[in-house]
Write a structure and sequence with these properties.
Length: 440
């Protein structure tokens, strides 16, 4: 059977943007920026994204389109040997990340529904509401299963009919929702204090740890380091399509979504005198408290969690597709079987993560099961994968890479790009890696 492709350039751009824009943009970025010096963090993040981030994304697209294969198959075809490990780590990372990402995706679905059933009320204590939800094992597993079922359904339908069509509807919807929420947030009385907090550059808060946080966030947010963009790049039909232009567009859309999410969260939080707190708390505890004080708060809450669910779904699809593409290309499974069986296995692996947040004590190495998987993937699998991908393009296939990216004539930055892949990105990633392991 012929390998699937994207129906159009726009379809590919929206699917790749859908992968990139996720939970990482809407709750993690604003919180990181807020606690790491506001605009100072945004500035450093931009520098990293526009040099290293965009270069590694272009590297992944190049490997993908050149081989028209999944992450493992692509390395096998180009070089084989130990380089395949990069592909393998990607497939494992896709499996592992999706198992807990889907648990949080399930929370967002629960919160859309709960917006109308008493959660958004001044008499509800949002902290105990959240804690009693995550302590309810059957409920967390149920919502995780619902989220996984939707993800499996989309991937089951295929690249064009499933992923591309879904993203063509959901990505414009996501930007519309974001726009509506921004207008509401910045016109609240007292919104300015939030904007000041977010945008006031405080360079005294910038330390080595800040730069590491920005690097790690850039990789996670752009979906880099595990062959996600190799897989999506492998479905590009035309050699004429400009990969540098695609990488630039998707990087800008992702960065815009993250930056704009801050304009929803901080004005809203500050307008009602709440304090921006860390982690899941900001989204699942602080915001419901704030929505309860807003006129029409139930609607605003439902819209906000819908935004989060849409963002999470289009990212989850891309994680499942990495593993499914491998099973189709290499193990010759049918897409339908791959989506159902792999998706089902990921659903099962997610159950201990879902339960580990309060229903039961499931700890590994002193962390909850979910936090442990999160730690392994963000601090080990993704940085090592990104390191190998950059080195591979920079040192093993630089000539192929140059040819693959010159559809519209040599692009001026080409040798800069290759040198970022050769030296700058590997060094930077290695530093994040050591930092993530707490080695300095
Ligand atoms: N980028 C997504 C987010 O910001 C998450 C994600 C999807 C991802 N695919 C990925 C992260 C691949 C790393 C690698 O939420």
């Amino acid at each position: 059977m012929e390998r699937e492709t994207w129906g159009s350039k726009l379809g590919f751009w929206l699917a790749a943007a859908g992968s990139a824009i996720g939970l990482g943009n809407i709750w993690r970025f604003p919180y990181l920026a807020g606690s790491n010096g506001g605009a100072a963090f945004v500035f450093i993040y931009l520098l990293i994204v526009l040099t290293i981030g965009i270069s590694v994304m272009l590297a992944e697209f190049t490997i993908g389109r050149h081989t028209n294969l999944n992450a493992v198959g692509a390395f096998q075809k180009l070089k084989g040997g130990p380089w395949q490990i990069a592909g393998w780590m990607g497939v494992v990372a896709g499996f592992v990340i999706l198992s807990f990402y889907s648990v949080i995706g399930g929370w967002t679905i629960k919160y859309i529904l709960s917006s109308f059933t008493g959660m958004i009320s001044t008499s509800t204590d949002s902290t105990s509401y959240f804690l009693s939800f995550i302590a309810n094992g059957p409920q967390t597993v149920l919502y995780h299963a619902i989220f996984m079922a939707i993800t499996i359904f989309v991937v089951y339908r295929g690249v064009g009919k499933g992923i591309e069509n879904t993203c063509k509807i959901l990505m414009p919807a996501l930007f519309l929702l974001l726009a509506i929420l921004i207008i509401r947030a910045v016109t609240l009385p007292g919104a300015l204090a939030g904007i000041n907090f977010y945008l006031n550059p405080d360079f005294s808060k910038v330390t080595g740890a800040t730069i590491l946080a920005a690097l790690g966030q850039a990789f996670f947010s752009l979906s880099l380091g595990m062959g996600c963009m190799i897989t999506y790049g492998s479905y590009i039909k035309s050699k004429k399509e400009s990969l540098p232009r695609a990488a630039a567009t998707i990087t800008l859309l992702d960065t815009a979504a993250a930056f704009l999410a801050g304009f929803v969260i901080f004005p809203t939080v500050f307008a009602f005198g709440a304090t921006p707190s860390a982690g899941p708390g900001l989204t699942f505890i602080t915001l419901p408290k704030v929505f309860a004080l807003m006129p029409g708060g139930q609607i605003w809450s439902a819209l906000f969690f819908l935004l989060l669910a849409v963002a999470a779904l289009t990212s989850a699809i891309s994680l499942l597709e990495v593993v499914v593409a491998y099973m189709i290309d290499n193990a010759k499974w049918s897409r339908q079987n791959a989506a159902l069986i792999i998706g089902g296995a990921i659903l099962l692996l997610g159950i201990p993560s879902a339960l580990s947040q309060g229903a039961m004590t499931i700890n590994i190495a002193g962390k909850s099961f979910l936090d442990f998987l999160d730690f392994i993937s963000n601090n080990i699998l993704l940085p090592l994968g990104g390191l190998l991908i950059a080195l591979f393009v920079g040192w093993v296939i630089p000539e192929i890479a140059k040819k693959e990216t010159t559809a519209h004539g040599t692009f001026g930055f080409q040798s800069v790009w290759i040198w970022i892949c050769r030296v700058v990105a590997p060094v930077a990633i290695f530093v994040i890696f050591l930092g993530g392991l707490g080695l300095f």
